């Protein structure tokens, strides 16, 4: 009797090839669906933008809700479609290919008002295959850095201090690399510690080889010299695999929650001292 059983190596090859075909098909299906969805929303926004009631200068609530009810869609979807069209009035970007991102990802990007900044995040999101949650984190970090006018009329830089204690960790500073980068031994809980490179969120200091860079590094070394621990409010890793974080410290406070809520905000201190400038998250 002829043995028709596949050899193990033949089976593995068949399995691998079919898995690749299926994965490629699923990916292509997702891309096609994404493209159809975002094009549909753009066309809806284009059409609504031609109507006077879609203008933000007039009360559009009654008309939009009537349309939404008759179309059996949520009114918020119509408002988002208008915002999406206004964000890209010349057409949906093809370079980078905006259709590679889901509609929910594009909704997160609508919070970025500056077209140049929005396009920069879009480019990195497409290149990095970011999920909606990563884009949301990036947008929130960008919005946390804002310009305010000082008492003398000059532009003073202010970082919004985080209040949510999620993603907070106690750490011991092992080394200061430069004004915005440190090596920290982080307590992950259950007696598990991990050494990570930390990049201070929202700011950029001068290169370490410059006088300004050396001054920024020395400032960080001095203020953290006698501190038994720091508290890190983490966001995500940057392209160099460093965790981006806000850093809080206070040698007189003993509990993590106290340091986070009332301690010194190192990122802001560097700005206040004129040793750093604000930067778009993830750029260097």
Short description:
This protein is an alpha+beta fold and 284 residues long.
Describe the structure.
The protein has 284 residues and is α+β, with helices and mostly antiparallel strands. It has 2 domains: 8-146, Arc Repressor Mutant, subunit A (Orthogonal Bundle), CATH 1.10.10; 161-278, Beta Barrel (OB fold (Dihydrolipoamide Acetyltransferase, E2P)). The chain is 45% helix and 21% strand. It is built from 9 helices and 10 strands. The chain has helices spanning 8-49, 61-71, 75-87, 103-109, 115-128, 132-144, 211-224, 256-262, 266-272; strands at residues 145-149, 155-159, 168-178, 181-189, 192-200, 203-204, 230-237, 243-249, 264-265, 277-278. It is globular, with a radius of gyration of 25 Å.
Note the topology:
Layout: H1 8-49, H2 61-71, H3 75-87, H4 103-109, H5 115-128, H6 132-144, E1 145-149, E2 155-159, E3 168-178, E4 181-189, E5 192-200, E6 203-204, H7 211-224, E7 230-237, E8 243-249, H8 256-262, E9 264-265, H9 266-272, E10 277-278
Parallel strand pairs: 5-8
Antiparallel strand pairs: 1-2, 3-4, 3-7, 4-5, 6-10, 7-8, 8-9
Helix pairs in contact: 1-3, 2-3, 4-6
Helix and strand element order: HHHHHHEEEEEEHEEHEHE
Q: Give the helix level as a range of percent.
A: 40-55%
Specify the overall morphology: globular
Give the class from helix and strand content and strand pairing.
alpha+beta
Radius of gyration: 25 Å
Q: Can you identify the CATH class of the largest domain?
A: Mainly Alpha
**Total strands:** 10
- Kindly identify the CATH topology of the largest domain: Arc Repressor Mutant, subunit A
Distance between the termini: 69 Å
Biggest sheet architecture: 5 strands, mixed, barrel
Q: Count up the domains.
A: 2
* Main β-sheet, spatial strand arrangement: 3-4-5-8-7
List the total number of helices. 9
Low-confidence segments, ≥5 residues, pLDDT <50? 146-155
């Amino acid at each position: 009797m002829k043995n028709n059983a596949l050899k193990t190596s033949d089976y593995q090859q068949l399995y691998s090839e079919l898995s690749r075909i299926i994965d490629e098909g699923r990916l292509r299906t997702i891309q096609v669906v994404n493209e159809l969805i975002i094009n549909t929303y753009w066309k809806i926004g284009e059409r609504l933008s031609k109507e006077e009631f879609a203008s933000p200068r007039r009360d559009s609530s009654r008309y939009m809700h009537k349309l939404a009810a008759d179309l059996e869609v949520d009114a918020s979807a119509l408002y988002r479609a208008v915002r999406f069209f206004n964000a890209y009035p010349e057409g949906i970007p093809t370079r980078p290919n905006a259709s590679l991102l889901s509609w929910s990802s594009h909704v997160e990007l609508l919070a970025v008002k500056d077209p140049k900044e929005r396009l920069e995040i879009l480019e990195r999101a497409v290149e990095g295959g970011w999920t909606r949650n990563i884009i949301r984190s990036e947008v929130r970090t960008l919005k946390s850095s804002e310009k305010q006018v000082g008492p003398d009329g000059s532009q003073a830089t202010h970082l919004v201090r985080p209040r949510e204690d999620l993603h907070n960790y106690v750490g011991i500073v092992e080394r200061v690399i430069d004004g915005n980068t440190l090596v920290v031994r982080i307590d992950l809980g259950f007696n598990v510690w991990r050494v990570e490179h930390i990049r201070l969120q929202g700011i950029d200091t001068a290169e370490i080889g410059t006088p300004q860079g050396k001054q920024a590094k020395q400032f960080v070394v001095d203020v953290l010299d006698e501190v038994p621990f720091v508290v890190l409010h983490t966001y995500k890793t940057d392209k160099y695999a460093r965790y981006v974080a806000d850093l809080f410290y206070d040698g007189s406070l003993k509990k993590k929650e106290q340091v986070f809520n009332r301690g010194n905000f190192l990122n802001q201190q560097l700005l206040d001292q004129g040793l750093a400038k604000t930067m778009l998250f993830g750029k260097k």
